[in-house]
Design a protein that fits this description.
- It is a single chain.
- 4% of the residues lie in helices and 55% in strands.
- By secondary structure, the protein is mainly β.
- The chain has a single domain, classed as TonB-dependent receptor, beta-barrel domain (Maltoporin, Chain A, Beta Barrel), CATH 2.40.170.20.
- The protein is globular, with a radius of gyration of 25 Å.
Length: 710
């Protein structure tokens, strides 16, 4: 079993789909809670209003109550137990334990994934801030898309905690966090070493080993982990994805007083089968798993060094974390085939080389004023990206011409303060303020597109929390946030491809959110939450499928509802269930229409996990995301997508187990993603507007043998 010394809380359950408890019952329980108001017990974690001290609970499971802890209905923590029960085809799918979040793919396995959340097609991670051990994964001003989030370096076996928040209500989170944020924590130490070998259909092979022996005097541990993987996938042109991944971490102390230093290294290479035109498949000219340009693909690498220090005294808690990351991507794509160049084709190359550094310092202390318990956190966050990227026309990965080449220096400073005050045993507030300042410097191969831009923004937040009454708590949240735009857009003067004049985009774009919610544990063994929200953006980041990039578009508004449940009726069965619905619209009149292309409207998931049935264990997960508009006037829509994954395992003895994982068990022929735009095949005389899709993988199986050692 993995372990770390950080305090962890119970997670909220998976969104609801199939009758764990009807929404009317949740509303009735909420009303009953108000009708039978009683003196609230002190929080089980965070500030104890009676003593003014922290009273955290250390747990391994997933049942720790969030009542008195969370400051919104859409925030939660997923613990190791539930993470281990997940069946994931690729590492980033571990994030799907976040209620309402869907992780998909439109290209080769080495490329960053697609994300859907709260009515967003988040492309490769825009507006979903993701961190691993405090290191920002989203890449600013990236060659392929703003907020590029490549999680292929993630080792699921090492993740002991996943914390998520939705909406712009957390003062400690800045850029990319408007739709939500996900924070993953690696283990500091392992109770036992882990070694596993996996084999599967279509060229899947994986080997993993990790341990954390004690080093030196005291409680110091040196954790190491190594992963080697290969996967071809179902495609006519095999992915031939090869990954080498390693982690080395020294740690000592505990969550209150301790430190850790971590080195990570990842390298991958792959062939890519990008989205293909539906017309080519319908005519029989192309297989569902075929490709137009077999030379698409890429290589990626990530090397990081990070450290964290924590110190707790009677005066409060201080934490310091810092990191440096070197990342490279060399990506080749062709989304329009022969539209721009009927002879050589439209393949383009997007190299991106960068060094990212970050520092975060925070101090938390407790006070009592006018008889009220209060906790305050103040902090400073510094981030810098030194970037070299470009855009080139290529054929079979050979460069033909340069569209643009840039050196970007992007730096930011954020300061934040957040205060939690317990005014009564049944009422607390969380008030926060964040201020961010950005500097963008672009040196382009076209001097007209070079320049310097600056911007700053302040983001206030407020949460009102009432209860708990009858094991039910109520939340009201308001706040503002932001996302940064690509630095190149802030200094552009002419289109680098056509030479036409180009409009600049604002460096920082404000978001405004509001949410009301309820969380209840009224029914024994069931933890449920309901949230209704609205999120406005001053400018929508839209993905252009024919250009492989994002651009700043019109203002937008999203409204939606999420219903989440975690249910444990017995000691051998757990049920997570979700349902989420969102309406996404552009604001203001435009004859093109008001729908946001790719905006997901409905998401649902049900996950069952069984354990302690003798030597056997297993899990089953159904995930669904509904039809989406593909154009602004809603005249073209995607179909829905549903997959059923599962696994069954047998513990051979206390140290060894074997498990069989199955993906897309019903063998559905759905799309992982759909776009609508113009393209041209080699035999076509003119451009054709069409749906372009990437298929989900057909039914496949993997077998993994795992052993623990001392």
């Amino acid at each position: 079993m993995l372990s770390n010394t950080h305090r962890i809380r119970r997670r909220r359950g998976f969104n609801f789909t199939c009758g764990v408890v009807p929404s009317a019952a949740l509303i009735a329980m909420a009303l009953a809670g108000l009708a039978h108001a009683q003196t609230a017990p002190p929080p089980t974690e965070a500030m104890d209003p009676a003593s003014g001290t922290l009273s955290a609970v250390d747990v391994e499971g997933s049942r720790t109550s969030q009542l008195g802890v969370a400051d919104s209905a859409s925030a939660g923590i997923v613990t190791q137990t539930q993470l281990e029960a997940r069946t994931v085809y690729r590492p980033a799918e571990l994030l799907e334990v976040t209620p309402g979040l869907i992780v998909s793919q439109h290209s080769g396995e080495g490329k960053a994934n697609q994300f859907y959340l709260r009515g967003f097609n988040l492309d490769h991670g825009t507006d979903l801030r993701t961190t691993v051990d405090g290191m920002r994964v989203n890449q600013r001003s990236h060659a392929h898309g703003q907020g590029w989030t490549d999680l292929n370096f993630l080792m699921p076996e090492l993740v002991t905690e996943l914390a998520y928040r939705k909406g712009p209500y957390d003062a400690t989170e800045g850029d990319f966090a408007s739709a939500g944020s996900v924070s993953l924590r690696y283990a500091d130490r392992l109770d036992q070493g882990i070694a596993s070998l996996g084999i599967g259909q279509r060229g899947y092979r994986r080997a993993f080993i990790a341990d954390s022996p004690q080093v030196g005097p005291g409680d110091g541990r040196l954790l190491y982990a190594l992963e080697v993987m290969k996967n071809d996938g179902p495609f006519v042109n095999p992915d031939d994805y090869r990954k080498l991944n390693g982690v080395l971490r020294y740690s000592r102390g505990d969550a209150a007083n301790g430190l850790d230093v971590t080195a990570m290294a990842y390298r991958g290479r792959w062939n890519a089968t990008d989205q293909i035109p539906a017309r080519a498949v319908a005519s029989g000219a192309l297989s569902r798993f075929g490709t137009i340009d077999p030379t698409d693909g890429g290589t990626a690498s990530r090397y990081s060094l990070s450290g964290a220090w924590r110190n707790t005294t009677a005066a409060g808690t201080t934490s310091v974390s810092a990191y440096a990351i070197q990342q490279r991507l060399d990506l080749y794509s062709n989304f329009t085939y022969f539209l721009d160049d009927p002879i050589n084709g439209d393949q383009f190359n997007q190299p991106d080389k960068r060094i990212t550094t970050g520092l975060k310092v925070a101090h938390t202390w407790q006070t009592r004023g006018l008889g009220q318990a209060s906790q305050t956190t103040v902090g400073l966050q510094l981030e810098n990206d030194n970037i070299h990227n470009g855009l080139y026309s290529t054929v079979a990965r050979e460069r033909l011409s340069t569209t643009r080449r840039d050196h970007i220096a992007e730096s930011s400073m954020g300061v934040f303060a957040e205060n939690t005050t317990y005014w009564r045993e049944w009422f607390r507030t969380v008030a926060g303020l964040r201020a961010d300042s950005y500097r963008f410097k672009v040196a382009s191969d076209n001097a007209l597109n070079s320049g310097l831009a600056r911007d700053s923004i302040a983001s206030p937040k407020l949460a009102l929390v009432f209860g708990p009454w009858a094991k039910t708590e109520y939340y009201v949240n308001v706040g503002t946030g932001f996302h940064s735009n690509d630095a190149r857009g802030t200094t552009i003067a002419v289109d680098p491809k056509t030479g036409d004049p180009a409009d600049r985009v604002p460096p920082l774009v404000r978001s405004k959110g509001a949410e009301v919610g309820v969380r209840t544990e009224f029914i024994r063994g069931l933890q449920s939450s309901l949230a209704l929200y609205r999120l406005d953006f001053a400018s929508e980041l839209v993905f252009a499928g024919d250009a492989g990039t994002t651009f700043a578009g019109r203002p937008s508004r999203r409204t939606g509802v999420e219903f989440s449940n975690y249910y444990k009726p017995t000691d051998w069965l757990t049920v997570d269930a979700d349902v989420a619905f969102a309406q996404a619209r552009f604001k203001g009149f435009d004859p093109a229409g008001d729908r946001i292309p790719g905006a997901v409207e409905g998401v649902a998931s049900v996950a069952l996990a069984v354990d302690r049935i003798g030597p056997f264990f297993g899990a089953l997960q159904l995930r669904y995301f509904g039809p989406r508009p593909l154009v602004e006037d809603n005249s073209v829509r995607s179909s829905s997508t549903a997959t059923l994954n599962g696994r069954i395992g047998w513990r051979i003895d206390k140290a060894t187990r074997i498990e069989l994982e199955g993906f897309n068990l019903t063998n559905r022929r759905n799309s992982a993603i759909d776009y609508y735009y113009e393209s041209r095949l080699r035999n076509e005389a003119a451009a054709v507007s069409d749906v372009h899709f990437h298929p989900i993988e057909p039914r496949s199986f993997r077998v993994t043998l795992t052993t623990r050692f001392n």
